[in-house]
Amino acid sequence: MTTATSKASKTRVILVGVGGASCAGKTSLAKHLRRLLSPHAVLLHMDDFAPASEDVPISKEHGIQDWDDPETCILWPKARAAIAQIKKTGHLPPGHTSNDHLNQLSAVGIEPEAEAYWTAELRRVADDSAARGEDIVWVLIDGFVLYYDAEVASLLDVKLFVQVPYDVLKARREKRSTYALQNPDSIGEVWTDPPNYFDNIVYPGYLKAHAHLFANGDVEHGALLPGTGITVLRPGEGVPGMTKIVSQACEVLVEDVKDGKKVFVEAA
Question: What would be an example GO MF term here (predicted)?
Fold first, then answer.
């Protein structure tokens, strides 16, 4: 992934977590970052490790499938192994496929001036690193329960968390209530939220997945506990809001190149 003039002899792999609730905007953020970091970035969706539909448990309380319980909504052994391998190689595992394209999200752009600035700034960072003999590969990993698993969280070099208020999350989720299933064994199937699914399943799962990160378990208003290493991003609505969190995320990435720990793999 070096440029034509690069003299890089080592590849530095930087794993960037992009977490947040369902409909917080984390996938849109991750896709913007991948584009700005291109050709030095790859994107992994935690949804690619969702179980097959027949393996999703039924909520004992509500009698419907629970796709959001952090203990069961991800095939954690498979996800851990894949992320650990990416950390070592800088490449997605052989044969890994993503079905994210089956879910069509409303595109929220960013302001042209910000896009031009960060494209140039991140290209400069990559070129400066190459001149020092380092070829950077950014691995963006987005997921709504990304920070629940301690082993996965420990593998991440940068941790971004998109924090959006309950009422905004609910409105967005209820507007977009049908999803194409991601597991390869479930291709062609879709899921439509039953009534009250956000309040009964989605939001409680979000709180469960993140309560350990915040003081008093208050995910919406509590302060981050010491040692999480997470940067909280709070977007507004529309293009200005997305521009804001993309810019904040890019600032974190640039600082990580300067100050972060160096993890190398052999250049291909």
Answer: kinase activity
248 in a structural domain = yes
β-strand partners of 141: 17, 44
Q: Spell out a b/e string for 179-214, using b for 16 or more CB atoms within 10 Å of the CB, else e.
A: bbbbbeebeeeebebeeebbebbbbbbbbbbbeebb
Residue range(s) defining the domain that contains residue 93:
10-259
Report the predicted TM-score, pTM, of the whole model to 2 decimal places.
0.90
Treating both helix axes as pointing N-terminal to C-terminal, what angle do 203-210 and 166-175 enclose, rounded to 10 degrees?
130
Q: Please write the tens of the pLDDT for every residue from 210-244.
A: 999 999 999 988 999 999 999 999 998 889 999 99
Structure tokens at 180: 């194409």
pLDDT band, very low/low/confident/very high, at 2 (cuts 50, 70, 90): very low
Q: Check which CATH number belongs to the domain holding 21 and give it.
A: 3.40.50.300
Largest Cα separation within the chain, whole Å, is: 60
Helix (H) or strand (E) holding 83: helix 76-89
Q: Residues 15, 141: contact at Cβ < 8 Å? A: yes
Q: Which amino acid is at 57?
A: P
Q: Decide if 264 is inside a domain.
A: no
Determine which one of 47, 66, 68, 193 is catalytic. Answer: 47
Q: How far apart are CA 51 and CA 206, in angstroms?
A: 18
Answer whether residue 4 is part of any domain. no
User: For this structure, is 135 an active site residue?
Assistant: no
What DSSP assignment string belongs to 187-207? TT-EEEPPTTHIIIIIHHHHH
Axis crossing angle, helix 238-259 with helix 112-131, rounded to the nearest 10:
10
